[in-house]
Amino acid sequence: MAKICSEKKCTVFISDTHFSDDYPEIAQRFIDFLKLNMSCIETLYLLGDLFDAWIGDDNMTALSEKISETLAQCADAGMKIFFLHGNRDYLIGQKFANACNMTLLNDKTVISLYGKKTLLMHGDLLCTDDHAYQRYRKIMFSSFMKKISLMLPLNLRKRVAKKLRKASQDSNATKQITIMDVSEISVIQALEDNHAELLIHGHTHREGIHTLELTHQSAQRMVLGAWDNSQGNAIIANEIDAPHFIRI
Q1: Contact yes or no for 180/87 (Cβ under 8 A)
Q2: Which single residue of 102, 129, 226, 237 could bond 81 by disulfide (Cβ 3.0 to 4.6 Å)?
Q3: What's the pTM value of the predicted model, to 2 decimals?
Q4: What is the block-wise mean pLDDT of the chain (248 residues), using blocks of 10 residues?
Q5: What does the domain layout of the chain look like in residue ranges?
Q6: Nearest Cα residue to 194 out of 116, 90, 104, 86
Q7: According to CATH, what is the number of the domain 10-247?
């Protein structure tokens, strides 16, 4: 388990933990990491797909209760927690956010990360070469469809979510890998539109650091990888150390 060794309070970014009852060890590693470093982490940003699926705040399970209790404990200890929706948990609402004592963010949120203007995204909006997914996203993530989805009986929502997940897996199996990655043009456009010099996102599960040349400056894109039952990853930064990856 990674212990953050620093005299300075730090900011941590995590994405794509994909918590589910099938892999409880992933959630436990997340919980252990936060408890071990509770006094060191000043701010925690969760950049989407915290859960492998979320069909509504009224579908709390033992696992989601455990996660919300841990996050609330961290918040009570002084940690500031922010959450940005992913494509798997876009139905997380204010009720769950309140239980976790975390603040919901919009996609394309800009922060000052120790003086560095930083753009935060989940990442799926940048996969603009996947036209079918972008059409699907525009419909399903609309306020109207979210409202309709949450009006359905819970059991029906569970069946629909299972079918949609299966359809997504079948569709992705036939797509070229490059189509499901981000478009460099879209990345550069997002950075320039938001006057940012750093972009942090997840979604693609392709952990790495990329350097880009914008019109008036260089910029970086840092991609968080997905967690699995053997390890996780995070990006950490403080007043002294530039953003970098750690293993969890």
Answers
A1: no
A2: 102
A3: 0.94
A4: 76 98 96 95 98 96 98 97 97 98 97 97 97 94 95 91 78 72 97 97 97 95 96 95 95
A5: 10-247
A6: 116
A7: 3.60.21.10
